[in-house]
Amino acid sequence: MTEETTEAKTAEKRRNDGNVIYVGSKPPMSYVLAVITQFQSGGSDEVVIKARGRSISTAVDTAEIVRNRFMKDAKLADIKIGTESITNEEGRTSNVSSIEILLTNKKKSK
Prior knowledge:
Elements: H1 3-14, E1 20-22, H2 28-41, E2 46-52, H3 56-70, E3 74-87, E4 93-105
Parallel strand pairs: 1-2
Antiparallel strand pairs: 2-4, 3-4
């Protein structure tokens, strides 16, 4: 196992559902509030914004609003994109795009 792989697994273990924001069909400002709340009262120096399918654009909007309007010191640490295969009740499989945006708060970083 390489050092880079070990670091990635350690970072995944540090993350829990407490610092993950799942984006759905609400307006972007709802998620912006959740991200800001997580940074300020959650005691976390990183927040992951996750979305699938049509919600991806809302997730990107959320990250950009946080970075450009509310928390100028927040930085994009990582963006992961992927495709997930989903099977419905009828047995039909379809591919759905997904995104994870990792924001870090520079002031709180060590």
